[in-house]
Please model this.
Amino acid sequence: MPEYSINAVTRRVVYTGSAGTGPYAFSFEVLVETDIAVYFNTTLLTLTTDYTVTINANGTGSVTIVVGTNVPTTPDADDQITIVGSRDIERTTDFVTAGDFRATAINEQLDSQIIMTQQVSEENARSIKAPVTDPTSIDMTLPSKDSRKGKYLAFNSTTGNPEAGASSDDVATLAAITDDIATLADIEDGTDATDAIQTVAGISSNVTTVAADGADIGTVAGISANVTTVAGISSDVTTVAANVTDVTNFADVYIGPSASDPTQRADTSALQPGDLYFNTTSNVMKVYTGSAWVEAALTTADFLQVANNLSDLNNAVTARTNLGVVIGSDVQAYDADTAKTDVAQTFTISQRGTITVDNDLSLDLSVTNNWKCTPTGTGTLTFTNHTAGQSGNILLDNSGGHAISLAATTKGDANLATTISTAGTYWLSYYDDGTNAYVVTSAVFA
Model:
């Protein structure tokens, strides 16, 4: 067994396949060829069949890929070669009492333990764990299997401990209606100027007037049959207007609607022969004879008939005007193409957000969700007016190679600022949670 130091080196290295079949070097020490595992993309390869191992005198070495089985063609830059420590964590020999106690045997045992310890450390580095500065009360145990099935992983807002989050089905449902949500957002912010919200906004004064008269409208709704009756005798109403004095006198005679026979007039004076009221229980007009209430003898020739469902109106347009429901000014005409928010729809015309040019690297989320940015000097990528759930894109043309840093609320991987500070053009995508904007970038465009 060779003897050499086991250095403090991460026991994993990842390459692109740009070197073809290799060799691909590893700088951590091994004792035998089986102390490593090799992956082609995500496929675990087999020693000899898929790769060979060369071990240098100092314990480091290299891997050469064998094409034909699990590696179908020579790797290229789109492939990934991963070499990771994989020594079996076991001890198969023991020192015996009064047996030889050789330095070589001791070194092999100690080297194996250091190698296995480094393997465990490398695996732990790829696991979810709390920062060393977290409180000692932190508990990173995952929720139970039944609690977390079909859920996203979340963290308690008070303790910071892992917990089951939103249902993956709910998130998928929300994702499936992103076009509808975007359409609603366009209606709300005025991007789509032809939809219902803008129409209502155009008659806001009418809406305000109606709202102020809500009680009166409720009263009219309660005597809708009476209103229908009056609509049928509009010429008579005109005549009454010309004889307002007589109408005033009639106000004493007509007591109004009542569920039972009145015992006095509205002004509390005694009933008089000829007094009238509308019985809301039997839906008939009654007249007082001087001693009793009897149904008034009325003709229905000038009245709308219930069975006709308003087909006997003289002029439907005039009727809508009188009722304050004129199409185009009071109410919106039916349009089969009006977007709905409670059903799935197919849009025949593209729905898209506008692109805003902003070169100072300070992006106001209340303005738009897509930008084009060409900085002219160094700056800090900053998002203002954070809005939970907003996402979008940024076309960053940093041809000048200006240094770009990230604001405290702009979150990216450790290399993001360095990457986009390099001269070139990048496509950045972001998602905002209401406090921070989380940003990813493409590679530089050719």
Notes: Residues 223-323 form one domain. The first strand starts at residue 12 and ends at 16. The first helix runs from residue 103 to 125.
